[in-house]
């Protein structure tokens, strides 16, 4: 089911996610990742689902933040530790590559600590104007995406 890009905010529902997960799994499979690294928080839902779909048990996370809510930060922060010492092919997973600032800091950070690893990036959405593009993605984003996990899990 194609998404409609006529609105300023796109509602990304679970049904879209299920379909897109299959498409992303097919793209990522030839990479033969042995580790899935979620970019917390946005990439965690997708990373878990993708690790299940690809049957990769080594699922880890790292926190890299470039936004406070919907406001871009002046500086990006990376926190948390991941152990990639026994990994070789690492699939970094986030929900969207928006500006690309997160990946432009995170990838060199990881490469400096784990030079023996090959890193590839998988996302659901990317913007063509981003500084860094993912290796695998499903949709080009033109508007703000309202992911189901950002709203459906909140108790109000």
Secondary structure blueprint with pairings:
Layout: E1 9-12, H1 14-28, E2 35-40, H2 44-53, E3 59-68, E4 71-79, E5 89-97, H3 101-113, E6 118-126, E7 139-140, E8 144-147, H4 148-151
Parallel strand pairs: 1-8, 2-3, 2-5, 5-6, 6-7
Antiparallel strand pairs: 3-4
Task: Measure the end-to-end span.
Answer: 30 Å
Task: Average the pLDDT over all residues and give the rounded result.
Answer: 88
CATH-assigned fold name = Rossmann fold
Placed side by side, the strands forming the largest sheet appear as 4-3-2-5-6-7
Which percent band covers the strand fraction? 25-35%
Task: Identify the quaternary structure here.
Answer: single chain
Q: Measured on Cα atoms, how large is the radius of gyration?
A: 15 Å
Q: Care to count the β-strands?
A: 8
Helix amount, in percent?
Answer: 25-40%
Low-confidence stretches: none
Report the total helices. 4
Assign an overall shape. Answer: globular
* SSE run: EHEHEEEHEEEH
CATH class: Alpha Beta
Annotated CATH architecture: 3-Layer(aba) Sandwich
Largest sheet: 6 strands, mixed
Structural summary, described in words:
With 156 residues, the protein is an alpha/beta fold. It has a single domain, classed as Rossmann fold. It contains four helices and eight strands, in the order E-H-E-H-E-E-E-H-E-E-E-H. Strand 3 (59-68) and strand 4 form a beta hairpin. Helix 1 (14-28) crosses helix 2 (44-53). The longest helix is centred in the N-terminal third of the chain and has 15 residues, at 14-28. It is globular. 31% of the residues are buried.
